[in-house]
Amino acid sequence: MNRIKQLFQTKSNDILSIYFTAGYPALNDTMPVLTALQESGVDLVEIGIPFSDPVADGETIQRSSQQALDNGMTLKLLFEQLEKMRESITIPVLLMGYLNPVLQFGVESFCAKCQEIGVDGLILPDMPLDVFEEECKPIFERHGLINVFLITPQTTDARIHQVDQQSDGFIYMVSSASVTGAKTGISEEQEDYFQRIARMKLRNHCLIGFGISTHDTFQKATLHASGAIIGSAFVKAVSDTTDLTTTISDFVLRIRKE
User: Fold this and answer.
1) Would you state the pLDDT for residue 184?
2) pLDDT in tens, 110-167
3) Which domains does the chain have, with CATH numbers?
4) How confident is residue 257, by pLDDT bands cut at 50, 70 and 90?
5) Of 29, 43, 57, 120, which is the active-site residue?
6) Is 29 assigned a catalytic role?
7) Per-residue pLDDT averaged across 93-122, rounded?
8) How far is 153 from 240, CA to CA, in rounded Å?
9) Which of 14, 29, 39, 46 is catalytic?
10) Cβ atoms of residues 119 and 145 within 8 Å
11) At residue 199, what are phi and psi to the nearest 5 degrees?
12) Residues whose CB falls within 8 Å of the CB of residue 19, separated by 6 or more in sequence, listed in order
C-alpha cells in the first residue's frame, strides 16, 4: 500500500508535514535534511523541486529555490540524490513543484523514476484538474503515485467535491488567498473557511498549509483538519544554520510542543 494511505490509516490527526527545497541550503543537503526530519518525528515530507518561475511561492521559498538552482540543482540530480533513500527513509515522501519541469522530463519517465526511487505522491499546484483526469491519472496510478490537489477559500463547493472525487490521499487546504509565507495567527475568516470544509465531510483527509509557522498556528489548524504543512518557516530556520540536525530537531520540537 502507498505510504501516504498507510499513514492516514494509522493516524488521523496532528499530522505534521514539512516542506523543504531540494539542494538548499547547500547542493548536497537534500538527504541530510530528509534524514533529520524523519529522525525528528515528522509524519510526512514534501521535497520542493526548484523552479525559476514559481506562482504559489512567497519570498522565502522563491529565494531558496533560486539559491538551489544557483547551487546547481536539477531534476536529474534530485533523482540521483534520492536514489537510495528507501534504504533508510520509511516515512511518506512527496515531490512538490510545477508542471513545466515534469513535462520537460516527460510525464511517463518522471513518474517511472518516482516509483523507482520510492516517491509516494506529487503536488503540482498548476496541474489543471481536467488535464490530470484525462491525461495524467492513468500514468500516476500505473506508477503508484498519489496526486495532491490544492483548494483555497475561493474554491467553490462543487469544485471541492470534484477534487475530493479525483483525490486518493489527502487534500491540501491553502489557508488563505496568498502565496506561501509565515503569518501571525489564524484569522476569523480562515476559521470560517476551515469550518466550512469540515462541514462538507469530504472522503479525503485535509492538511492545512500556507501561513502555518508556530506551535499555536499548528494546533489551531489541527482543530479543523487532520494536520498541517509547514514550509516557509522551516526553510527560513535552516537558511543560516551551521548545524542542520540540531536546528531541524529543535524546530520540530517547538512545533509539536512549545
Assistant:
1) 55
2) 999 999 999 999 999 999 999 999 999 999 999 999 999 999 999 999 999 999 999 9
3) 13-256 (3.20.20.70)
4) confident
5) 57
6) no
7) 97
8) 34
9) 46
10) yes
11) -65, -20
12) 45, 46, 47, 48, 61, 96, 209, 229, 230, 231, 234, 235
Mean pLDDT of 169-186: 71
Q: Is 53 a catalytic residue?
A: no
